Amino acid sequence: MYNKLPIALGTALAVGVAGFAGGAMAKVEGDTITIGSSLSLTGKYSTNGFHTQKGYDFAVKRINDTGGVKVGGKSYKLKVVYYDDESTPSRASQLTERLVKQDGVEFMLGPYSTTMTKAVAPVTEKYKIPMVEAEGASRSLFTQGYKYMFAVLSTSEYYLAPVLDLIAERTKAGYKAPSDLRIGMAFENDGFSLDVRAGVLDVAKKYNMKIVIDDKLPADLSDMSATLTKFKALKPDILLVSGHSKGAATAARQIEEMKIQAPYMAITHCEAAKVHVKFPKSANGLLCPTQWLTNLPNSEPIFGDAQKYDKDFKVAYPEYNTGIPYQTAQASAAVLVFKDAFERANSFDRDKVRDALSATDMNTFYGPVKFSEAGNNIAKPMFYRQIQADGSYKNIVSNGDMTVPRKAAY
Amino acid sequence: MLDNLQLLFVYAPVMNVQMILDGIFIGAVFALAAYGLALVWGVMNVKNLAQGDFVIMGGYLAFTANNLGFHPILALPVIATIMYIYGVVVYKLVIRRVIDNDMFVSLLATFGLSLFMQQVMNLIYGPEVQTVDSHMHIMTMFDDFVTVPMVKIVSLLLAGCFAAAIVIFMTKSRTGQAIRATSQDARAARVLGIDTDKVYMLTFALNSAICGIAGVLVSMIWVLQPFYGIVYSLRTFAIVTAAGLGNLPGVIGMSFVLGWVEQYAGIIAGAEWQVASAVFVLIGVLLWRQIQLRRQRQVVR
Fold first, then answer.
1. What is the mean pLDDT of residues A397-402?
2. Among 3.40.1190.20, 3.30.70.260, 3.40.50.2300, 3.40.50.300, what is the CATH number of A158-290+383-401?
3. Cβ atoms within 10 A of the Cβ of A337, count?
4. pLDDT tier for residue A23 given thresholds of 50, 70 and 90
5. pTM for this entry
6. Does residue A335 sit in helix, strand or coil?
7. Which of A186, A236, B97, B190 has the largest count of CB atoms under 10 Å?
8. Does the interface predicted TM-score (ipTM) exceed 0.90?
9. Which residues of B touch A (CB under 8 A)?
């Protein structure tokens, strides 16, 4: 389907030719700035790989159409070179090496997922290549002391922790103590979800909430009925689950099957797993974290505000008419951040661009972007939506917007 | 752990009902896939590492049938037939060529087959998790505490019927007898006029059809993903190794034991031990066997 053969051959050749052909294609040629990216276009991450690619492409086209990137009084066009990493980390780092050493790329856009970003970052770091990534959320990416990697998205420990703040505020508003709340939670045993769990533990401790179930789900577990049976016996007030799309699908299916009731339920990736379509009964009242909302007020000259981005993107890609995943929006935001950094650096010198990136303080349709010392975006919060009885998602801005207690009619 | 035990046996003993029932339902689905594996392993001495992928493939066929507007259970005979034909094709293309080679060739070949099937399913259906809704009633007992979905009961009955049908087929029909004869001594069977090549093909295709049936049940009870086959491969291997080849009651019993052990391990030790517990059971059984056999072992120096 996607021509893998040329890539495979190319990579094989690259190993042999790299020594001779270094810098065959420079990063800035004529009026074109070439940015490299290794994306998962086949394999298990391919759906989100494509969402990411469309986000990059859409932003590149828009920037080129609206005057390009202005450096030193001259206008440059952006161009992205993609390679397919086949959802395999070792392939991703190989291809990054190829982009840098053979194709002479000096700037990178990130791959999809924490796993792939972990494979790519050591390579870009080694060659001092500035990389703006939009899809690797794990906290562990930002504890390695990487100097050339910047991420526009909120990190994983903020996926479910703020929902406890909302719940605590709501409980206080009802003149009850948050410390009476009991939590039952299950997290997949992988880097991302364990980061989500770490964030939850901190907030639960802050409010003195009691954690009565704390299960870790194996990566290939398609059955969490044991955890839910325990949940039924202990009747906690809050159910938290994180395990990517498969965790969300498994949880929604078994919550419905076992008729689980709890005043608050929050699950990550519920939109990606389409629980509102597949399991409308259990989806009713679920709280879902998201990186981006289409009614954010922030606005900038390229895309306008979130609503306008949403509208324009659907015109360009009608297949997204039912909704744009946040993965796409944050990919576009990453390209905006690069443009802004090039213009402020007023140079294509890698270190100057890196310094400009690190000083980024801007507003985008995706939310504010400002990087910490470690490279993660500290200006943008995580947002929540609650699934309604009709399957629509309602934006939760303050605790009063939540419909509680969740009452599902099974 | 102690509070979990307390919960289980002191505060909410009703939980046990749910877990025992769940264990039986899980076991029934495993038993089907495991019996298919035992058949292929016992008759042909091929350890089919793609067993789980056959199950997932059956699940995706059910998913397709559902999308076309047919209830998966009604589509079951069609799916079983498609899987049977697929089994014949795979046998002719791959298995026949490795059957007389040593164990590692068949392991490698079926492992390759497993990767191939995963990637093809990924290309066709995409990597997202898919589910099939059975639209069946969910029964409740003990004031909503214990829930029993009808689809699981139907699965149990179907699994029981198919197991019975296979037993009758293997003992009464001439083909079944030929399969058993080949399994006991392929050379002698050939001498007596049994076309062992055909028997092997039938066995492999039968296994494929059984996996397809298990897959249909899986699609309605759990979730489908192109890379989930390994879960079923691992469990069926554990079941067959522990039960022994050609031991149908053993395979069925072991499947239920595994279903229960997984449920109880999930509650008592936490969900992270659920799948691991299957492997612990296997180790336990192998150790026990070793000790038993040692008593009977005679010294050969």
1. 85
2. 3.40.50.2300
3. 26
4. very low
5. 0.84
6. helix
7. A186
8. no
9. 4, 7, 11-12, 15, 18-19, 22, 26, 122-123, 126-129, 131, 133, 138, 140, 144-145, 147, 149, 222-223, 225-228, 230-231, 262-263, 265-267, 270-272, 274-276
